[in-house]
Amino acid sequence: MRDKKIVVIGGITGGIGSEIAKRLIKKNWHVVGFSKSEEKVNGFLKENDGIDVEQVDATDSDQVTKYFEGLSEKYDRIDGYIHALGTFLIKPVHLIKNDEWKATIDNNLTSAFYCMRSVLPKMNKQNSGAMVFFSSVASICGLPNHEAIGLLKVGLMG
User: Fold this and answer.
1) Which site from 4, 78, 95, 148 is most exposed, i.e. has the minimal number of CB atoms within 10 Å?
2) What is the set of domains in the chain, with CATH numbers?
3) Between 98-105 and 147-157, two packed helices, what is the crossing angle to 10 degrees?
């Protein structure tokens, strides 16, 4: 593995995550990743032989910790982490129910926190590594019905 950089992609089965995976593989990176949906993981594995992909719910601290601990045992380093997961809640703010808000917080901010907290010790120990988190234009300009996601993506930018 020393000849290839190793990147972990959270949300690897989604549109952004899978496209990043394909591009990095072409650039000779070793790509691994995870997705919340077992069905999507199985479909991704059928189309992308040789990529190590697991089912992990990034809103579950224990699952995230266990996943990154397993990677630390398997690989001597992690060169990059890409957080390509999250959900969009596009709805007038006065119509958003508490459970929708809490789920959106978990899927966008809590997941990012758990993943960052789990991969950072490995990167600190090796004195290298980079992380990428995706935000939204809604975090920098007002868009109708995007108040909730804009607020959460501002938090992610921090």
Assistant:
1) 95
2) 6-157 (3.40.50.720)
3) 30
